[in-house]
Amino acid sequence: MKGELHLPDLPEVPVALSPLSSPVDDQQRRTRPHWTVRLRESMLSYLPLLLMVMLALGTWLIAKNTPGLLGPSSPTAPKHEPDYTLDRFTLDRFDPTGALKVQIEGDHMQHFPDDDIMEVDKIRVTTIDPDGRRMIATAQHGRARGDSSEVWLDGQAQVVSESGVEGELPIQVNGEHLHALPKLRRVDSTFMVIVHQGDSEINADGLEYEDNTRVLTLHGNVHATMQPRPRKAGAADAARTPAKR
């Protein structure tokens, strides 16, 4: 047997669902913080940014007040001041074989790095050839390059050159201002000079002397007093002895 159940139609009733409200906690029940507290909290949150700004500002002020740091740097000329001095010194220069080539001596020396010049009081420069022949230059005051390639002699300047040939007298040059190239064995001057060789004397307004070739070039007014070379003792005795028939 088959049965059916019929339910009556129920009326529609509107239902409104409201969101669940969270329970009120203690944090919400608190009162709003005082304005000084809020200000302090805001300052603490911006403190790193403020420190970075102050650091950048300080760096800019230091750079601005430092001379030449922000502007274009212009090279300054080195000052003519000595970097070291020596008293009663001897400076030796050697050739590639180890032989003594140039020797500079003096009572007092100052070295200037801007032009690599040595200023020497009571200077004495000796140039030595491989065969032992010497050329000696002296003066009250002198200036020399750091490599001893050039020397300026001032005040009672004198250069004496040995001939290296037996019986040939040395050549002596005197003047107030002489210019010498020791390594090339050359001497020149544009001032009055006196040249001696034995008893012979030459006065000139200037000269150029090449010691390697023993060639002397004189300039300006030249006045010379030439004396004959002294004969050797053996030759003089032979000249005085009458010849036998």
In short:
By secondary structure, the chain is α+β, with helices and mostly antiparallel strands. The protein has three helices and twelve strands. The longest helix is centred in the N-terminal third of the chain and has 31 residues, at 35-65.
Helix fraction?
10-25%
By DSSP (H or I, 4+ residues per run), the number of helices equals 3
- Tell me the overall shape: rod-shaped
Mean pLDDT: 81
Radius of gyration: 51 Å
Largest sheet: 12 strands, antiparallel
Account of the protein in words:
The protein is an alpha+beta fold and 245 residues long. Helix content is 18%, strand content 40%. The chain contains three helices and twelve strands, in the order H-H-E-E-E-E-E-E-E-E-E-E-E-E-H. Strands 1, 2, 3, 4, 5, 6, 7, 8, 9, 10, 11 and 12 form a twelve-stranded antiparallel sheet that branches. The termini are far apart.
Question: Which secondary structure elements does this structure contain, and how are they paired or packed?
Answer:
Elements: H1 26-29, H2 35-65, E1 84-94, E2 100-112, E3 117-128, E4 134-145, E5 151-161, E6 171-181, E7 186-189, E8 193-197, E9 200-204, E10 206-210, E11 215-219, E12 223-225, H3 233-240
Antiparallel strand pairs: 1-2, 2-3, 3-4, 4-5, 5-6, 6-7, 6-8, 7-10, 8-9, 9-12, 10-11
